[in-house]
Amino acid sequence: MKSPQGNKVKKLRGIAVSPGIIIGKARLVDRSRVKILYQYLVNEQQVSGEVDRFKDALVAAKEQIAAVKNKMPEQIRKHAFILDTHLMILEDSMFCNATIQTIRKEKINAEWALKKSIQNIEKLFAQIEDRYIKERIVDVQCVAERVLRNLAGKEQEDLFEIKERVIIVAHELSPADTSSINIGKVMGFITNVGGRTSHAAIMAQSLKIPAVVGLETATHHVHDGTLLIVDGQTGEVIIDPDDDEIIHYQERQIQRERYESSIIRLSHLPAETVDGVRVAVKANIELLEEVVAAKDNGAEGIGLYRTEYHYLRSSNLPKEEELFEDYREVAEIIAPDPVTIRTLDLGGDRVSSGVSQIKEANPALGLRAIRFSLKEKTLFKSQLRAILRASVFGNIQMMFPMISGLQELLDAKEILRLVMDDLEKEGLEYDRHIKVGVMVEVPSAVTVADILARHVDFFSIGTNDLIQYALAIDRGNEHVAYMYQPFHPAILRLIHQVVEVGRKADISVALCGEMAGDPLCAPILLGLGIDELSLNATRIPIIKKIIRTLSFQESKKDLEKIFHLETATQVRDFIKKKMQPLIGELDQKGLISTTNNHA
Ligand code: PEP
Ligand code: MG
Q1: Which of 17-26, 65-74, 237-246: highest mean pLDDT?
Q2: What's the pTM value of the predicted model, to 2 decimals?
């Protein structure tokens, strides 16, 4: 394939979403849309035949999705809810009944009638303001495409049927596609579309296969069988590499694997600096299933258990008993280390179909997190009961998200006290000394941290939101992604302020935003005196290794210099220089990327 200038395209660059280097043959997966033709049905017999044909296509689609679910690799079972959503769409009356009615009323073929139903559903979705729900239209389109393929009698190649070792190249991969990837065979994938938080990207990380998305023209430049090198660290894809390039990348690949396993082998060691200061390194999890992997990666507890999953995965609210069993199991697996359960952080972009939520112009500034829980008291109480009841089975502590001032904290604690009284009356056991903390993630909480500190056992700084609210940038908006700057002097000062308050009040200060897993942030957070870092489990071995190479005293001195710097870029450059050669080594081995790769 030639570029517009006539040269053969050799290299593409996309968004690196799952690290690792692979060299292998391309396998183009055709996900092009089925052509839909209009057909008028002349008699009743044809109409009922068409309805039956549509029903058969629905049944086949259900069977295909069920088969994908059954063959789903263990690592990504937790994403099975996406396929459950697809099964629900196949039962939805706007999808099924409406299509059947259109076939009958308008005497038209099933394909055309389904197209009309989808257009109606698309119109409805177009009116939705919430970006997350609006984007779920892709699931409806994906299911429709499957039904259309069934109607056309077109085989859809399911990815678990791929038998050779290949790199998948596709315009787009649906959740059903990525769920059915056979990791024994598929080495990784590249796609034209997609972003860092797309389903496909998340799946690739869970499967630990390299992936690059957002390449725009990959399917134009790559043929079936073309040799490719995919670098899931830099986002580079090399088409038809020459021998030198192959040797170069093979070496990088070997080095990376060796280096990574040497780091993992040491992950059980404590994160203790060369001058003997120890930082607790814990894991952020969203699911019970992640606890064992967290432990294997060297987590010394769970520093943040996000609890939204149970509320997001189905349209029914979770029962107290279900939550209790889940929390209890997490506590038992991680014991004697602690787990910090964060109460529900619904609202913003996390919307549950099980609770009615008001349409808001600015959801991130709306009824989110603790504000939502304080309004939905019954729901809040049921979660608190589950946490308290589980607290006798391990070392559980709890924290409230998005506290913006003392009144909210007192209101939440009052509800907690009422729940404790109820349990007392019912003769149910709970840990009466359970530690209660707050997430410090709203700038006003930093300002009044001294007041909050008198009423809590610990702070956990949520930099993902703190950066969003302090720098006034929507954390999900790609147009301002470049502004997401953990090194911004304002952010460093805010964190410093919280740590100082914590030290004076003698309460521990943890940090659980993405910053905790960024190797370049490690010396700053150490110098600031953060007691605990909580991060994605896969980053734990690297962060522990980095801390083991640092000196606390030196990091503190560097911080004094850093506080004189005036921009995020200056801070970043200072740190990069300071941390050579280690950072260069990690970068070269493909374990971190020091380039700003916003997408
Ligand atoms: C944070 O805001 O930094 C945080 C850890 O919470 P979440 O990403 O769940 O909002
Ligand atoms: Mg947050």
Answers
A1: 237-246
A2: 0.69
